[in-house]
Write a structure and sequence with these properties.
Helices cover 7% and strands 41% of the residues. It is mainly beta. The protein has one domain. Strands 1, 2, 3, 4, 5 and 6 form a six-stranded antiparallel β-sheet that branches.
């Protein structure tokens, strides 16, 4: 999959569901990941709960639903209003 790229506004204004510019990452990507998610009802997760994978297949192989680790397509990293680096789940794959 070729990642989709979302260019954020350089003046710090937010786009799409309150995603803010991260000065360390002026472009955020859609990527495959394994997300530790005690509740899959949430749509954003801190960077510490997200492990980026190189492909959908790899994400699915590393998923461990019994340990609350699920394959997903994510958008990020972005900076939350609290200053945390976060990822948004675009789609759960498992």
């Amino acid at each position: 999959m070729t990642p989709h790229r979302y260019v954020l506004l350089t003046n710090g204004q937010h786009i799409m569901r309150g995603i803010y510019l991260d000065p360390d990452a002026p472009v955020i990507n859609e990527q495959y990941a394994v997300v530790y998610a005690p509740r899959r009802s949430r749509d954003r997760f801190p960077e510490s709960s997200v492990e980026i994978m190189d492909s959908e297949i790899t994400a699915r192989e590393h998923a461990e639903p019994e340990n609350k680790k699920f394959a997903a397509r994510v958008l990020g990293p972005s900076r939350s209003s609290e200053g945390l680096r976060i990822y948004y789940v675009v789609e759960w794959l498992t």
